[in-house]
Design brief:
It is a single chain. The chain is 32% helix and 26% strand. It contains 15 helices and 23 strands.
Length: 473
């Protein structure tokens, strides 16, 4: 049987496990990155996943595994679609590794937790425990997590921040005596690993000049402390659910009919793989553009995703020709969809650290970078105004995470009314103008399937039936 048969028939051979913890800041990202790297080095094909909407952790897991990480988020993605996402991504893989978010039972509600992902996909859990100032009490903690909900299986514990051999011995004895599961690793407190943990959580891999070497160092640091053979043995004993063959068949792409530019570089790199795949499935050819170096090629539409433009404002400003190309194309009716950093880039200026930098200038607003998050978390929005992309009455689920705010001019039109979250001004989001649509909210194509179809259809029509609308003043 070939690897590709694993999710379409025959005996299930895919191994899987999920890395979680009792609470955040327990070191699970470093552990997950290390496991992906070490098991990839053994010659296994590892498919990584991240619970939640985050873009940063997946970028590091992608480097560690050498395969694109996918997000598993039950707020953004319906359950059946999530199972399809998992199954489709795991084709050709030997092992699926999921990194949880926050604590095992934390989430928007009881249906949005890491535990629920484990239950839905029948994935066993490795619990990474911060053992600082703890000995026998670890058994009570782990036992409580084992018993708190049914339908999940905690199969092992990884001890983190261990103070020494005597400390580790007491912890191991407590877990193995009272919880009847093995300790699969004991990682000492290591300043280098703590620095790595902070680095992974703050900086996308595309912005790190030493991403590959950092991942390699993490793997080398963890290797002596993890029982990889036992972890693999446990992972082989569980079978995730299969999606229907029809669901997998629907993913096939067809010959492209339109060309969509996608800003994809150090600045703009927050894209869900499913969003790009959904555009391709609607017959779009994707042309990747570097915002720091390129001009705008001949395209029928433009997609500008998220990122951290504040770190590159000078370089963005210096690429005047691209800014001019984009502004003129939008005025001529080019369909553009932009999220968060893309929204900021299309405004007139970005103000940061006492300086102002010229941006594309089509949206009559200026961006102020702030020290604290202005919008952070899940978003519910309703489409309330007629626009070139989405129908009135549609409810959109998304998320936002931005350290910036917009000072907008009168006359701007908003497509979204915010029901949960912040958006642009606490009440509204989704600026539209001609065939431009820009918002702080990130949406996921699996949860908003009409988005890709609408955007590609708009690109297909562009130039034929342009909307006649005056320029902003």
């Amino acid at each position: 049987m070939g690897r590709g048969d694993r999710f379409t028939g025959g005996d299930r051979t895919l191994g899987c496990f999920l890395v979680s913890s009792p609470q955040g800041h327990s070191g699970k990202t470093v552990v997950t990155v290390g496991l992906c790297k070490l098991l990839t080095n053994r010659g296994l094909s590892i498919q990584p996943f991240k619970k939640g909407p985050d873009y940063i952790d997946p970028s590091w897991l992608t480097i560690a595994a050498g395969r694109g990480c996918r997000n598993l988020d039950l707020f953004l993605i319906p359950k059946e679609k999530l199972i399809q996402t998992f199954a489709r991504a795991c084709e050709e893989a030997d092992l699926a590794i999921v990194e949880g978010a926050m604590g095992l039972y934390d989430g928007l509600d009881s249906q949005q937790t890491t535990a629920e992902i484990s239950r839905l996909l029948n994935i066993p859990i490795l619990l990474v425990v911060n053992t600082s100032r703890m000995t026998g009490s670890i058994a009570a903690m782990v036992k409580g997590y084992q018993l708190f909900e049914t339908g999940i299986k905690i199969v092992g514990v990884i001890l983190n921040y261990v103070s020494g051999s005597r400390h580790e011995k007491k912890l191991r004895e407590a877990v193995e005596e009272h919880c009847a599961i093995p300790v699969l690793g004991g990682i000492p407190r290591d300043p280098d690993l703590q620095i790595a943990e902070r680095h992974l959580g703050l900086i996308p891999s595309k912005e790190s000049s030493e991403a590959e070497s950092l991942v390699e160092r993490i793997g080398n640091k963890l290797k002596p402390y993890l029982d990889l053979d036992q972890i693999l043995k446990i992972a082989q004993g569980f079978s995730p659910p299969r999606p229907s063959p029809r669901a997998l068949e629907e993913s096939r792409e067809r010959a492209p009919e339109v060309r969509l530019g996608v800003m994809h570089d150090q600045v703009f790199n927050f894209y869900y793989p499913e969003n790009l795949e959904a555009l391709r499935q609607e017959n779009a050819e994707l042309i990747f553009i570097n915002s720091l170096q390129d001009r705008l090629p001949p395209v029928d539409g433009l997609y500008i995703g998220g990122g951290f433009p504040e770190f590159f404002v000078k370089q963005l400003e210096e690429n005047r020709l691209l800014r001019k190309d984009i502004a003129e194309s939008i005025e001529a009716g080019l369909p553009v969809y932009a999220e968060c950093a893309g929204l900021m880039y299309l405004c007139r200026k970005i103000h940061w650290q006492g300086r102002s930098h010229e941006m594309v200038g089509v949206i009559p607003a200026e961006v102020e970078i702030s020290q604290r998050p202005e919008g952070h978390g899940y978003v519910l929005a309703e489409v309330t105004d007629e626009n070139p992309l989405l129908p009135i009455g549609l409810t959109i689920r998304g998320h936002e995470f931005h350290h910036s705010r917009l000072s907008v001019k009168n006359g701007i039109r908003f497509a979204y009314e915010i029901k949960r979250g912040h958006g642009i001004d606490g009440k509204r989001d989704g600026i539209f103008y001609k065939n431009l649509f820009a918002s702080y909210m990130h949406l996921h194509a699996s949860g908003t399937p009409c988005w890709a179809e609408a955007f590609v259809s708009l690109a297909r029509r562009q130039g034929k039936t342009p909307l006649k609308e005056a320029k902003y003043g």
